[in-house]
Amino acid sequence: MDLGNIVNELVAAMQAQEDRGTVASYIPELAKIDPGQFGIAIATADGRMLAGGDADTGFSIQSVSKVFALTLALGKVGDQLWERVGREPSGNPFNSITQLEHEQGIPRNPFINAGAIVVADVNLGGHQPRVAIGEMLRFVHYLSGDDSIAIDEAVAASETATGFRNLALANYMRAFGNVRHDVDLVLGNYIHQCAMEMSCRQLALAGRYLMLDGRHPDGGRVVSPRRARRINALMLTCGHYDASGDFAFRVGIPGKSGVGGGILAIVPGRASIAVWSPGLNANGNSCLGTLALEELARRTGWSVFSPLEEGD
Ligand code: GLN
After folding, report:
1. Can you give the pLDDT at residue 81?
2. Same domain for 154 and 260?
3. pTM of the predicted structure, to 2 decimals
4. Ligand 1 pocket check: which of 60, 65, 109, 159 to mutate, most ligand atoms within 8 Å of Cβ?
5. Do 79 and 182 share a domain, yes or no?
6. 62 lines ligand 1 (CB under 6 A)
7. What is the DSSP secondary structure assignment for residue 14, as one 8-state letter?
8. What is the pLDDT, as a whole number, of residue 312?
9. I need a labelling partner for 8 at 20 to 30 A (CA). Which of 61, 102, 176, 178 fits?
10. What is the pLDDT of residue 28?
């Protein structure tokens, strides 16, 4: 299998696509992004990097950050986290409020907004948001081996000015006692974490610990093998909101999307993949990003549902 060739052909196919979805506009700063872009980067378990298209252009990782935030929160409170956040797919949009009332302020999973806000509350740990954000940046620098990754302050300011839904979610959970810090501080942490700007190359590098059973490529341990498997399981079942089932069906590997148009996808033991194209489908997931991963999985045979690597 010539992975470099597959990447080049995928890039050409995606660049020729006309239906690219719609760029997110509820965060005004994201609405300015040119939808004509597509990037892909694949970090393989044997240490190669294959990249193509706009793989070095920075984009707002948004909800992809929830994977790194969850990893940090589990490191702080371990399995106690599951007393405050569930592990079931929600079947609802990422910013849904209705389910929270029925479930007494316990969000379905850590990847919908409500769940990620609880995770941001845990990560705040009594500090100011800048302390928690500093910790997050250091973590992502370590994972990717790239200290240049930073927050896009314009995106953070834009979401701070318009994020009324997340404010409602946070206040609602505070009423149930499931958000413990001042909601402005929690959202400050959450919004800045979402506003991290990364390229596909940086994101694929940052995800390597999840393909390596929790190990950093430098040999250090980021999380235990069991925790890495569980994070991958959550990505597969909850990483694309109410389209998670469809993503598992079409692509067949764990993935986490963000409204900036990025997706981090993990093939355990094989590859950490980042794709990016800003146009979204109706569920808020990257249109071409999903299509590219579907095609990549088809051509490589990569799937968590098959022991064989046979493209078809
Ligand atoms: N910061 C975004 C929000 O809270 C993240 C959503 C997403 O990427 N799906 O709305």
Report:
1. 98
2. no
3. 0.97
4. 159
5. yes
6. yes
7. H
8. 66
9. 61
10. 94
Residues 255 and 151 in one domain: no
| 133 falls within a domain | yes
Q: Is 26 in the active site? A: no
In a domain, 305, yes or no: no
> Which of 196, 219, 248 is the last residue in one of the domains?
196
Read off the pLDDT of residues 27-83 as tens digits, 9 standing for 90 and up.
999 999 999 999 999 999 999 999 999 999 999 999 999 999 999 999 999 999 999
pLDDT at 229: 98
Please state, in angstroms and rounded to a whole number, the distance separating the CA atoms of residues 187 and 232: 25
Ligand 1 test: best mutation among 22, 27, 281, most atoms within 8 Å of CB?
27
**In the chain, beta strands by DSSP E:** 22-23, 39-44, 49-53, 59-60, 150-151, 196-198, 255-257, 262-267, 271-276, 279-280
What residues make up the domain containing 290?
3-59+198-300
Q: For position 22, which CATH number holds? A: 3.40.710.10
- Residue 180, classified by CB atoms within 10 Å of its CB into exposed (0-12), middle (13-18) or buried (19+), is middle
Of the three residues 162, 196, 230, the one that is the final residue of a domain is 196
Ranges of the chain with pLDDT below 70: 312
In a domain, 310, yes or no: no
Q: What is the pLDDT of residue 23?
A: 95
**190 part of the active site:** yes
Q: Do 179 and 242 sit in the same domain of this protein?
A: no
Cβ atoms of 254 and 265 within 8 Å: the answer is yes
Q: Which of 259, 267, 272, 275 is catalytic?
A: 259
